[in-house]
Design goal:
This protein is mainly β. It contains no helices and 11 strands.
Length: 115
Amino acid sequence: QVQLVESGGGLVQAGGSLRLSCAASGSIFRANTMGWYRQAPGKQRELVAIIITGRITNYADSVKGRFTISRDNARNTVYLQMNTLKPEDTAVYYCYYRAVGLDYWGQGTQVTVSS
């Protein structure tokens, strides 16, 4: 089992920044993928950004150039630096962990961007 604990969400004005963190604990495999998805009201959950152990990254087109994902393998923690936030970034952000074919999700953290 893997537990994911997120932090860093909140309310910010458009153009502002937030940094999300997610710490993984439990049965952690060295080779894994961690990342962030988000779900806005009435919409499906969508990929925001993922990062693989070797630091390969993938971003949704809507956040490229504004969001940066990074990880600290020693702390099993993934970060999402979100800059130039827009009202359409408002959603619940979920931390994601995948290893050996198993997926785990955090409880979600609300990000609200006011116009």
